[in-house]
Amino acid sequence: MRIDIITGLPALLESPLNDSIVKRSQTKGIVTIAVHDLRDYSDSKHRNIDDYAFGGGAGMVMSPEPIARCIDALSEKRRYDAVIYTTPDGATFDQKRANRLSTKENIIILCGHYKGVDQRIRDKYITSELSIGDYVLSGGELAAAVITDAVVRLLPGVLNDETSALTDTFQDDLLAPPVYTRPAEWRGMEVPPVLISGNGPAIEEWRMEKAMERTKIRRPDLWEKFNQQGDS
Ligand code: 6GU
User: pTM of the predicted model, to two decimals?
Assistant: First the structure.
């Protein structure tokens, strides 16, 4: 898979993409992530990428030309399956969307900034608009890093058995069960005995029970969805 991220603030993406699992999957050649500095596509002397909003009002708007140049240059090299724009007024990103995106070959993520991009860019280039939740960030870079991380860890070969995405919270509409590590007794608190029983099926049953209990209490919305699976 290839992910091209277009941003006015490339430094914000540096460490999230160059550490841990996302870094390792790039080293392994499973994904190529390229960050493009929008200022490199500016036609102005001061490398401006934004301008005043027509009609007035506070806040700058990202200019269309640098973005169009960047997307056009990329599109000459390969065909893109999706051109995503990160914006608080987009559809909420979730595990289902992560799963879907992980099957794409080439995607572009355009990071929104200031008051957003000129609407004509959204009309002409963008295939989907994504938000990572109902709160406002200073820019779309952190959202792009979140989306990239969630997608990359699903790619075949990125995770091993121990970190398998199959047991992730949300993958089956259930939260993950509690986990414990050594020591078995710590500051007077003990690990649930079943986990050190060696009884595989009993452990699985315990984990399922705890996952359901947690989901029911913490996320009644997910619990309802879980119970509707298999209905109809
Ligand atoms: Cl994608 N961008 C910004 N600026 N704020 C957000 C967001 C995106 N998702 C949630 N809040």
Answer: 0.93
